[in-house]
Target: Aryl-alcohol dehydrogenase
Amino acid sequence: MRAQAAVLRDPGKPFTVEDVSLAAPGPGEALVRVAGAGMCHTDVLFRGLAELPMPMVFGHEGSGVVEAVGPGVTRVAPGDHVVMSYDSCGWCGRCVTGAASYCDEFMARNLSGVRADGSAGATGNGGEPVAARWFGQSSFATHAVATERNLVTVDRSLPLELLGPLGCGLQTGAGSVFIALKVRPADAIAVFGAGAVGLAAVMAAKVAGAGEIVAVDLHASRRELALELGATRALDGADPALADAIGEVDHSFDTTGVPEVIRTAIAVLRPGGSCGLVGAGGGEVTLRPAALAGRTVRFILEGDAVPQQFIPMLIGLWRQGRFPFDRLIRTYPLGGINDAERDSASGATVKPVLLPAS
Model:
């Protein structure tokens, strides 16, 4: 199968849009024509790691239409509209108890860039292997081969090209609030970082009935948007007296991965409070044991969500006007991927979504 893809050939170089040949869908796999693909901070963070196989196609917030299925596929059929989320094995102890984001094979299936059997999944014009299974999909392309367990079927009347971010970033933010932290009515929560994940958490906290929702960010425009989406207060992350300005909260949620920010997120917790971490790559965090007295701190993957259950719930909230995630999105053609990456890094765009067909 011939496709166009944004290929990264060197960790320090820009993406280039090239023709690639995708392997046909094998057992348990489906070929998806990509309608839209969100750019997540994880794509940007990991694209700089020299140990990943290169050349490689990133992208793990894809949405599209199933064009073909491999042997044994029963959950989706050609013509289905789908959102692509993370991959999992389906049979380990975590998967069978509804905790697939902690699958025994999560890292190998999602962060290696290759198939479970070690094959690349695609070839370039010179016949060289191209790693095309990032998060089981590699959706920065016109077509992607995903596993059946990646896919969530959605209503065909929905704006398919905008739904991809529900598969990771928005699921992570909202799931962390609803499922992992279990925010209840009248609770107070502080959200550090008002990017797509943080703003999803803000919107979810409003739905959950939180009494106080404090959004913290360095960008004034994102603080303003947080207030429009449900935050009761929005504070400048550069404030040297930030912890005092926040006060005490029942929950804190860090999307930045910055050690100093994480320490503040823990410091503002009331005894019995919980802190959720999703930001990666910021370095080590040093704490005195007493800082954890009566407090819970944990790293959350994918919001603890089961995509086939959670993504339809978020779509339902969006239809009710209670989770307006589309306000975060700015679209780019596939050829504009480097502009999308630049705008995401600068804060100019909250959630870039690539449209491969445009």
